[in-house]
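Work through this:
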Amino acid sequence: MSPQEMSELSGRRILLGVTGGIAAYKSAELIRGLRRAGAEVRVVMTEAAAQFITPMTLQALSGWPVRQDLFDREHEAAMGHIELARWADLVLVAPATADFLARLAAGMADDLLTALCLAAETRICVAPAMNQGMWRNPATEANVAVLKQRGIESWGPAEGDQACGETGPGRMLEPEELIRRVANLYPGTVLRGVRVLLTAGPTREPLDPVRYLTNRSSGKMGYALAGAFRDQGARVVLVSGPVHLSSPPGIEVTRVETALEMQAAVMDRVEMCDIFVACAAVADYRPLEAAPHKIKKDAQSMEIGMTRNPDILAGVAGLPKPPFCVGFAAETQRPEAYAEQKRITKGVDMIAANLVGAAEGGFEKDENSLTVLWEGGRVVLPMSEKRRLAEALVEQIAKQYEKTDTAENS
């Protein structure tokens, strides 16, 4: 294992699933290698896996109790399988038997490992291990194809001699190769240790106890950015408005509702960050006063007095020693022109402009495109899935931040 791989896995949280195949003995060396590389490993075994290797062995190697039972009273009183699914940066099932692949493709959740895979919102990879005939069977081929469509990666199998005496595809990849592939999932090191404060989602401004003013932001772009920064080695704090998204693993999340609450949360933390990214769609105005009781529809019309909310991005950029500031400009027309004006007026280092209200991309969509601007430069990031777009944007932010940081320290 290279020093680079060891560095890139430092602090990563790997949930290793072990299913019932002869290759389960390789899981011991896989755990040892992942931990040597700096990863934290927790293990979930199926009932069949315990026929091939003991839980005590894997517990000793991982340093954590091995989980086996979906109905474990000690852990499931607090929905432990959901907690495990949220804890992991990666779920790696090695070995993954034909039976497990079939049940995963069917969406079953009748044991702990399939249940947490179904609940997981992080990346899932499987390392198949089975007889060559089982691997070549059309049923297995179809199951692997279904999993691929759902974004679950299949690593291997390798070809060679098998325990049954046959030869062909079906051997689990060696632990060293699996560790290399895990390391390749986390190529970023340029932001290792950099502190990022990021806002995401909408804000809600109350009119009365049951109504509020808000916007169409889903928070998907901001949450994708938080994950992309984390994968580049940054320490991320996410201040989130109300969204229907789960907290990204490995990220500190503070949930707020109003623009004033978001401003307070940001200003409490801004001195401890190196990069500030204002991705949230903060309401520009709020009602002067929220009614104490539900407003009745007694009149034909109603006037609502509004007052301007604080500009969080401008406030951070205007600090005596501001962090590297990145803003967003969501526009329905001329996004680049308005974004450049916003960048100059607010004094931010970079700004990402996107067109909203169009047929493609923007609010409430899974895809988007961005035009990123900075002093003397621009780059267009074409329409793509928001997770991929976030990775590309973080790469651009890292480049400009590195230049600024180098200039300030030279």
